[in-house]
Design a protein that fits this description.
This protein has 323 residues and is of the alpha+beta class. It has three helices and 18 strands. Among the domains are: 61 residues, no CATH class; 44 residues, no CATH class; 112 residues, Sandwich (Jelly Rolls), CATH 2.60.120.
């Protein structure tokens, strides 16, 4: 009998050694959880050892996602059983629908949720939370983000109504801005104020404090240059001519444009040139519109006498180069 007990003890020891070797060679758990052991032929006196093995094996597996810490030889922490995390084993397909049950699972490296009607929602995508999986934000309620100081929030965007109150639209808060002042690239882009201002300037400049150009008109029917300092490129200009001491008139043309002839023989003045006329005593003014040369300059000529007139640029519209 003594030799039998020694043999069975040796067998148990060899079994444990085999388990540890298997773990070290093939990886896996430190403590095996084998439903085939103990066998019916094992010594009943090994029962205590086997029960401890089961406890250790259970504890090792529960410790993957739960608080299951050993204090000495006991699992006695007050937080025992609470989750550290939830580890999902990747599924190759959506789970089978079960009434009154929901599923949270991993598939194709992403997290999914499925309710008991098989409605499936993808929760993550390439490391990001899928925004579409969240509850819709209430109408007329801003989506918010933490402000720079970290002490408050900033309104981002909300769903609201247009001014006519006949359509739902996205609404940005007052003072919302674009990241840069770059020009838009598509017709539907939101544009910044700088771009709008630049376009207004490109379309036309209306002078709020225009320069008064005092010009002495020669009486020899000769075109003379007038440098419109407000204008720097070929433009369509609107000019105001004023004078209050005499009746007089004349013409403007683009600077040095010889298509307009300075000859009033027989009362014929250059066709197509822009005329101006001011009248004595009534303080009559004249408004002319014409194009300038490439530098924004014009010529002026008088049809009557040598006098001084004031020429004011009311507005100018860049029109590019002449064909």
């Amino acid at each position: 009998m003594k030799s039998t007990r020694i043999d069975k003890g040796v067998n148990a020891t060899l079994l444990l050694i085999y388990c540890f070797l298997a773990i070290s060679l093939f990886g896996g758990w430190t403590y095996t959880y084998d439903t085939a052991t103990p066998s019916n032929d094992d010594d009943p006196r090994e029962a205590a050892l086997r029960m401890r093995e089961i406890k250790l094996a259970n504890r090792e597996r529960m410790d993957v996602d739960h608080v299951w810490d050993l204090t000495g030889t006991e699992v006695s922490d007050a937080d025992t059983g609470e989750h550290r995390q939830i580890t999902f084993h990747e599924s190759i397909a959506d789970p089978t629908q079960v009434a009154d049950h929901a599923h949270l699972y991993m598939k194709s490296d992403e997290l999914y949720y499925q309710d008991d009607t098989t409605t499936t929602i993808k929760l993550t995508d390439s490391g990001y939370l899928c925004f579409a999986s969240l509850d819709p934000i209430a109408n007329d309620t801003y989506l918010t983000a933490v402000d720079e100081a970290g002490t408050g929030t900033v309104d981002l965007i909300k769903a609201g109504r247009n001014e006519a109150d006949d359509a739902d639209v996205a609404v940005l808060p007052d003072a919302a801005r674009l990241a840069t002042d770059a020009a838009p690239v598509e017709d539907t882009d939101i544009v910044n104020m700088k771009y709008v201002d630049d376009q207004i300037e490109a379309i036309g400049i209306y002078e709020t404090a225009p320069t008064v150009h005092e010009v002495t008109i020669a009486a020899d029917n000769t075109w003379q240059s007038l440098d419109l300092t407000d204008v720097t490129s070929r433009s369509l200009v609107v000019l105001l001519v004023t004078y209050n001491n005499s009746n007089m008139g004349g013409y403007f043309r683009p600077k040095s444009d010889t298509r307009f002839i300075a000859d009033n023989v027989g009362g014929t003045w250059p066709r197509g040139a822009s005329s101006w006329y001011v009248q004595e005593n009534n303080d009559m003014s004249s408004i002319s519109m014409l194009t300038t040369d490439s530098s924004g300059n014009v010529d002026i000529i008088s049809a009557t006498i040598a006098k001084k007139v004031n020429v004011i640029v009311l507005a100018h519209f860049p029109i590019g180069t002449e064909n």
